[in-house]
Design goal:
The chain is α/β, with parallel strands linked by helices. The chain is built from 14 helices and 9 strands. Helix 9 (about 170-195) crosses helix 11 and helix 9 (about 170-195) packs parallel to helix 14.
């Protein structure tokens, strides 16, 4: 059992922190910008809540965070009320936010200057993966810090891998999002085409999902996509944030991402349709909306 803090109790962080308590048996203190959410978590899982990230991190062996973006991450780590101000020497900060590799490297250096460790550890698997403790975690940082933190990370994950030095976890998450963007667009077009061709979509998917076209997106989203239901996970707003990071990084590294750039614009059209909070499978709505 370790003394642990968790900062950020959104749709991902809330259950992840819960698994650290229930599966890991850790002594967990939580912080959330909206205090009522922290109070609710404590009422459900036990542990304690703190008024600032600094207070939450005091005396902890491991400090986890899952917030919105680079600026949110800086706000909960640096400054007088940030977690870094409260962390003891030798403690490790594990950042589950999907953010830029740039901020990961920046905070890695800041943590090291205070005698602490820092791991960028973005996750994949969505809200359902967080709730079921079945996330995939892509980690960047030092081997020694990874080895110390991994048993706790295992509480909410099914796969954890150290991908390289600081920033490598975020870079790997970018690869993940690039893959998903293309897959969802391809599946959207396929289902749209099948419907236009008067095929039975269920029968089509039953057959092709056993062949080379199979994917997680197909297995888990085809039916809701066919039925025009888009409240099953990762929101379009979040995906556009992630793809923006991918495209910016590609520009810096010289990588060419023509399909990713195109799908990003398709998601912008979904946002304009009122789908900011729809899940990422809503790309099909853009195709079907064009007919109206």
């Amino acid at each position: 059992m370790a003394k642990v803090a968790f900062i950020g109790l959104g749709v991902m962080g809330y259950p992840m922190a819960g698994h650290l308590k229930t599966r890991g048996g850790h002594d967990v203190t939580v912080y959330n910008r909206t205090g009522a959410k922290a109070e609710k978590w404590v009422a459900e899982f036990g542990g304690a809540h703190a008024p600032t990230p600094r207070e939450a991190a005091k005396g902890c062996d491991l400090v986890f965070a899952c917030v919105g973006n680079d600026d949110d991450l800086r706000s909960v780590t640096t400054g007088p009320d940030g977690a870094f101000s409260g962390m003891k020497e030798g403690a490790i900060f594990i950042d589950n936010t999907t953010a830029s590799a740039e901020v990961a490297r920046e905070l890695y250096e800041a943590a090291k200057a205070k005698g602490c460790g820092f791991l960028d550890a973005p996750v994949s698997g969505g809200q359902a993966g967080a709730e079921n403790g079945q996330l995939t975690v892509m980690v960047g940082g030092d081997q020694a810090d990874f080895d110390k933190a991994k048993p706790a990370i295992d509480c909410y994950s099914k796969m954890v891998g150290l991908m390289g030095g600081a920033g490598a976890g975020q870079m790997t998450k970018m690869v993940n999002q690039i893959c998903i963007a293309g897959l969802v667009q391809g599946l959207s077009e396929a289902i749209h085409f099948a419907k236009k061709a008067d095929l039975d979509v269920a029968k089509v998917i039953e057959v092709i999902s056993k062949g080379a076209a199979q994917s997680w997106q197909m297995e888990n989203r085809w039916e809701t996509m066919r039925d025009g239901k888009f409240d099953f996970g990762f929101a379009v707003d979040w995906m556009r944030k992630d793809l923006g990071i991918c495209l910016k990084t590609a520009n810096e590294t010289g990588a060419r991402l023509p399909i990713t750039a195109l799908v990003d614009q398709f998601y912008a059209e979904v946002q304009a349709m009122g789908g900011k909070r729809w899940d990422t499978s809503s790309l099909i709505a853009r195709l079907e909306n064009a007919e109206k």
